[in-house]
Amino acid sequence: MYHELSFDGRSLDSLADFPAARCYIDLFEAEPWLRNVAKPGNVTLEKYFKKRQAEPGSRGRLLKEQPHRLVRKIATIRNAVLNLPDGTVVVWMDGDCVILRPPDAEFLLYAREHDVATIGRGESYTPDDAKDFASHWWLPETGISTFAVGPASQTLLDGAKAMYEWGVYQVLAACYKNELDMVSRSFSTRAPRNSSELMKWICRPDILGFSDIQVIWMLAVGMQHPLWAPGDIRSLLGSLAASTLQVPALRVGWYALGCWRVQWPDDRVLAEQMQTYNWGRAKDSVLCPGQGRPGVSLAPFNIFRYIMHRKGTNGVLPFLNGKGAG
Ligand SMILES: [Mn+2]
Q1: Exposed, middle or buried, 296 (CB in 10 Å: 0-12/13-18/19+)?
Q2: What separation in angstroms does the CA of 131 have from each of 23, 127, 136?
Q3: How far is CA 261 from CA 118, 119, 301, in A?
Q4: Which of 147, 82, 76, 79 is nearest to 110 (CA)?
Q5: pLDDT band for position 287 (50/70/90)?
Q6: Spacing, Cα 310 to ligand 1 middle (Å)
Q7: What separation in Å is there between the alpha carbon of 141 and the centre of ligand 1?
Q8: Is residue 231's pLDDT more than 60?
Q9: According to the model, what pLDDT value does residue 324 have?
């Protein structure tokens, strides 16, 4: 069990609440770099938000506490992925997830065959003319993510750490250095056709940022885009891009959460859970098993058969007010 007692300044006695855990890892002791990022007033983060908030139309959409909080999720996953034997499957579930079934052979096979896999959100985020690029525009919903431990997933998580420490800021600095003016207004729905257009896309405030969704997108999707091939963008991002690009063929998988009724019409457990499921923004962008395209790996099953990401309502952890952050 990961805990944050040293950061909270609380004693180990509090762990008596969780007697079932086999071992206890203090996240801030196991990942010492975390203290600096999670600390309010971090200089790099302050510089980032100062730049972003000066952009026209920033409308307070930048949550300043986001990196301090969400980096803990990345640090926890990284600690597991960097310390477990190769081939181990690490499953991340947000506190607003519920487990419907234990992982079985089908689930584990898919998870093991992909360095990283998360829920995919499809079409509504895909540029109008980029349907054939498919997953280059899918948005990860990282409430449920799996990692197959090995050099590729370990490099990915090192990249995620770097993104929080300096990478996101460095990318933004590169955006400004390129005089990509009107960064916040470049909401083209046309797919980038060259590295300069891709850079513009990547500078968008909804694409580049400190939510774990944005960080994982950048590393697992954005930087895997063919337009990142050796060229000016690569040199702009320096060692961050270089280290992630060195991962030979990061195997990215996507979990589907649509069409559950078609696939498992008699699944009562799932049907019951789905009645209370809050689709929210998901309803227009879910993918169904079997919707994969050439070069895109979409899991052959609905992830909700095993785990449901309830997005903001009580899951394995109750939220005090019944509402979480999603
Ligand atoms: Mn969640």
Answers
A1: middle
A2: 46, 7, 9
A3: 21, 18, 12
A4: 147
A5: confident
A6: 7
A7: 8
A8: no
A9: 46
Alpha-carbon gap, residue 135 to 286, rounded angstroms: 13
| Cα–ligand 1 centroid distance for 230 (angstroms) | 36
Q: Can you tell me which residue has the tokens 């063919």?
A: 226
Distances (CA, A) of 217 to 11, 25, 184, 208: 37, 28, 18, 9
- The position carrying tokens 């999707």 is 221
Report whether pLDDT(210) > 60.
yes
Contact 254, 117 (CB under 8 A): yes
Beta bridge partners of 2: 25
Q: What is the pLDDT of residues 253-286, one digit of tens each?
A: 999 988 889 989 999 999 998 888 877 766 667 8
What is the 312 CA–ligand 1 centroid distance (Å)? Answer: 6
Predicted TM-score of the model (pTM): 0.89
The answer to whether 206 and 144 are in contact (CB under 8 A) is: no
Domain ranges of the chain: 1-30, 31-309
Helices (H), 226-312: 232-245, 260-263, 268-274
How far is ligand 1, taken at its centre, from the CA of residue 178, in Å? 35
Give the residues across from 297 on adjacent strands: 253
CA of 31 to the centre of ligand 1 (A): 22
pLDDT digits (tens, 9 = 90+) for 109-162: 999 999 999 998 876 556 666 655 555 677 889 999 999 999 999 999 999 999
Write the CB contacts of 237 (distance below 8 Å, at least 6 apart in sequence): 167, 170, 171, 174
Q: How far is the CA of 313 from the centre of ligand 1 (A)?
A: 8
